[in-house]
Amino acid sequence: MNNKTKKKTRTKPHSKAGRTAAEPSRRAGKKSSAKSRGATGRRPATASKRAPGRKGAKAARTTKRATPITAVAMLDPRRANNQVQGALEAAFKRCLAHGQFIQGPEVEAFEKQAAAYLGVDHAIGVSSGTDALLVALMALGIGAGDEVICPTYTFFATAGAIWRTGAKPVFCDIKPRCFNIDPEDIARRVTPRTKAIVPVHLFGQAAEMDPILDLARTHGLAVIEDAAQAIGAEYKGRRVGSLGTVGCFSFFPSKNVGGFGDGGLVTTKEGALAARIRALRNHGGMGQYQHTEVGGNFRLDALQAALLAVKLAHADRYTAGRQQNAALYTELFHQAGIGAVDHTGAPCATSCPQGVAYDGVPLILPAACQNRHVFNQYVVRLQSTELRDRLQAALKAKNVGSAIYYPRPMHLQACFAALGYKAGDLPVAEAAAACSLALPIYSELTEDEIRYVVEAVVRFFAAEGVTPIARSAA
Ligand SMILES: Cc1ncc(COP(=O)(O)O)c(C=O)c1O
Q1: Topology at the third CATH level for domain 85-312
Q2: Which of 116, 119, 162, 220 has the fewest CB atoms within 10 Å distance of its CB?
């Protein structure tokens, strides 16, 4: 495939809740125009310093000759930040001028903006996504002797925060298509000691929340949504972070709303809980030097809040770009005959198959189920670890970034050995850890860059002697 001659196919950003962003577009083959690209626009790599938008896209099409792509990074936060550089500098100067760097109006304004965006009454800025989880667990009074159920297939912070309260993390298996916690497995693991469930909205897609919330109601459990990767994601039309008892978000630079260092947010609809979280984030102090309980320094910096407020205003644009990129990957892999979305079985709400049906397809592409998936990651699955690792090496040789999220599930981490899990205990998660690979997906990637990644994958399979499947079978 040649970058210069290949016909461009683009799909509009998927803006509606419930739409399956990763499904092959019905518009495949239709030539895109600047108009049909939506507000984000697209530009070739040569114009990467240009602000996006229609004007940028139009100018890009008249660029004399696109420089051939030779590398695609897993992430380049500078691109999104450069687009709003003026506003970021203004926010920074404002903070320099007023000099209030701890709490105060910048944090309050950001919290109000975040609460409105997420559809919650209270949003509390904190120092990181990890601390969001920790302070939420502390505010719910979870500690020694308690059990907290969470998925084994997640970033370490989910389990680490539970452990740090003195409670016991109880690991659950996942659903194979969406990679999210399996509600039926949660039900099997509830005991009289269980105090909370921590579903993780992994890779930007909501976990199957209805059965989880039902279970929590039945057993009187708190639900702490780990929405670190999923700001703006929706479950049946409702934003994640507004569904459970509390929601926890991260602004780590790789997240959809990426910060300038660490930052996080806790959301809740409960006023008393919000007050407790506010106190705990500031050493448990209710007034100056008066401490009713022991908290920590979990504060979000005012400077960070001021800068994040600029980025949060563009959250839907970032999401649209990621959804658009996901749709293009899916469409191109489908067209090349090497990838398919696994549509076998019913949606998770009823029954999701326990294994992935490869049916001879080299790559299983991410399924958006019935959710508004915000694609913090675009994670494909291969048929074996060896193939996955060889593909990653081949991508590296072409200067394409990729990542394995996550190579070792929590139940097999050395630090949790005392919990007594062994290999084979949570097989769906173990299979996902063994065979999945995340490709670059950030919203400012150009169409040519995505085509370069797909081309590298296609060439890899050709070199492996893998026969593309007939398109109708994909
Ligand atoms: C699922 C999940 N939970 C929690 C966190 C922790 O967030 P932070 O890095 O902001 O502490 C992350 C960050 O990657 C995450 O992906």
Answers
A1: Aspartate Aminotransferase; domain 2 (3.40.640)
A2: 220
- Torsion sign over Cα 115, 121, 127, 133: negative
The CA 129 to ligand 1 mean position distance, Å, reads 5
pTM for this entry: 0.86
In this structure, the residue with its CA closest to atom 8 of ligand 1 is: 129
44 lines ligand 1 (CB under 6 A): no
Closest CA to 461 of 347, 339, 295, 279: 339
Q: How far is the CA of 465 from the centre of ligand 1 (A)?
A: 38
Model confidence at 251, pLDDT cuts 50, 70, 90, reads very high
> What pLDDT, in 10s, does the model give residues 263-303?
999 999 999 999 999 999 999 987 778 888 999 999 999 99
CA 405 – CA 154 distance, rounded (Å): 8
C-alpha 135 – ligand 1 centre gap (Å)? 14
CATH number for the domain formed by residue range(s) 35-75+316-473: 3.90.1150.10
Q: Which residues contact 106 (CB under 8 A, 6 or more apart)?
A: 94, 95, 100, 302, 303, 305, 306, 309
